[in-house]
Amino acid sequence: MKSRFGDIRSHLNSMMPVFFGIAFLLILYIDVRSFRHYRAAMIAQEQQQLLMIAKTVGNHLENAVQQELSEIELYFGGLEDAGVEEEAEQLRHAALYFAKQNGDAFHGILLYDRIQGTVPYSSMQPSGTAAALRRAGEATEEAEAGTAEILGKELADSGWYEMLLRYRLRNSPYDILFSANLNYLYETIVSPVKIGRNGYSVVKDKDLAIIMHHARSQIGMDAVYDRAERYPELNLTSLRAWIDRQKEEEEGSGILDSYVWDSEALEPVERIVAFTKIHFQGECWIVNSTLPMQELSGPLGSMVLMIAAFTGIYFLLLLIAAVFLTGSRYQAEAQRQEIRYLRELNQGMEVISRQKEEIRHYQRVQSLGMMASHIAHEFNNFLTPVLVYAELLEGDETISPENREMLREITGAVNRASKLSHDLLAFARQDSGSKLRLLNMTEETRAASEVVRQLCPEELRFTAVLTEEPLPVMGRDGMLQHILLNLSKNAFQAMEKTTRKELEIRLMREGDWAVLTVRDTGCGISEDARARIFEPFYTTKGSRQGTGLGLSVIQNVMNSLGGRIELESGRMQGSLFRLYFPIEEADPGRRMLRIRRISVVSERQEMEEKLRRWNREHPKYAFTLYRHPAALLSALQGNRAETDMVLSDYRLDSMSGIELLEMVRRLNDGIRLLLCTEEPGEDLQWYVNNGIIDRILRQEEFEEVLQEE
To answer: CA–CA separation, 433 vs 430, rounded Å?
Structure first.
């Protein structure tokens, strides 16, 4: 034994490094996958935030431009409304005042005479912008009077774009031309929106020329082609794909390989980007917001290092603990086995305690049945002469009508008492020694349904829907007829005062169950009555019409067969009874072929040697010996399919073999149960007849059982 444990210990010790190596790689793989998933989620979240920033900046830009146009219309339109004559001197004073009030937003104002082709007033120094503004005024003849409009953009000598605007006065040859400062819009709207530490927003026009950028060297350049000419050494493939998306889509987000444009070294950088488009007066601007990926990768990288460090420390501590525990594990193996056995024993004893209480209740009910049988038999003996003499007196013609009526009352009372005694006998016989046998439930139900059909009142519509499939179940002769007659009689009485009278009997297979249903359209059963309907002697009909034993008998019959009965009903909704019968194998031999694991419960010392011999001689079976019933019950509590067969001695210290097998049957009614005893008797045969155990045999017949199986 020591050599065997030593070999196992050596093998486990040699496998320990492999185990820890695989576990470490698995944890590391999980960490990396988790990091990638978290990184992707953070990038997606950041893309959504950047898109919201781009939309916000775009909305503010559009509102600012519209506000400048509205301000022009409001100011100069007000001059017309006030009746001011549109002469050059008057307009010059108005332009001077407007320029003074809006000097930051507008670089210059120019008054242009369309008829003379002259410029009576200009607040601008000679420059490219002033010349462009005059050319724009000369080139565009068609314009709507009283409306400010955008003529275009011009890259000023300052390096920033200026937007050219015009306002045409009504009933006047003059146009007022404005040069709006786009740098002012950038500094007041775009630049203040901070994105992380190194994020920013840029604005391009519909031709993809950069009109607002924090790096002034980039303003005026085409986002791809001019950069490709200026920086031929750069790889702009990712940037081209991003610009192509901006041509086709109204908004979007992604990851872009770009460069630090405000650095002379033009370091490469991976960016999270998002864009949106804004449209006003024929203009289309693209607002692009960006954040360096490094601002996310830094915290994520630190997290990975921290996870890796914790994982390494964890496995190091685990390895130290495993080495320590491995050294002491095999020394304490016997103690752990003993503790495990005692724990299972304790759990089994708890199961025994609970189920012994159930057995005592069952025995009390059995005693009640025996007493009821005796009382009913004697009661019938007393009733017989009373009924005979009452019927003889009814035939006497000298009896007066009043006395004849009293005799009929006596006869009715005797008949009701006789019915009560028959119900008591049925209640007493429900667990009798009448042996269970395999029945074809389909044929039994068909025969019983015909009896019900003959007893139905003429005004009642009766239907029977039965499957053609043979359904083998365990039962007793006349059982189905007794059940259906009881339920049908109740249904007849429930439908006495209803206009719709229908009774339906249905038999179908549902998996491993034969399901018999009885449905009526009677007055139904209240919720309070449903809670007590299966109690013995409970009735809703009054003492003169029912004994309250019919449904109790049916429920106990179903329980003894391993089935169940269910009720669905409500007031004035009819009633539906469902009875579930477990379907048995038609060929008992097929059940034997499924047995592979056999549990033996015995306290005899020689059983251990016998089991070793059986394991050698019958290799298709796996035998397990239990010295205490509680150990088997604990194993079944943990796994109901622990074994296929139980062989138990009748005499055990803590309980009898019958009590043990009853508990096993309650835990799993599919286990084959065999009882071994030296004195088989009629009292034990009762348990076989009622399906509680499967067979009783002597100790020397154990091996014959194995040959049969």
So the answer is: 9
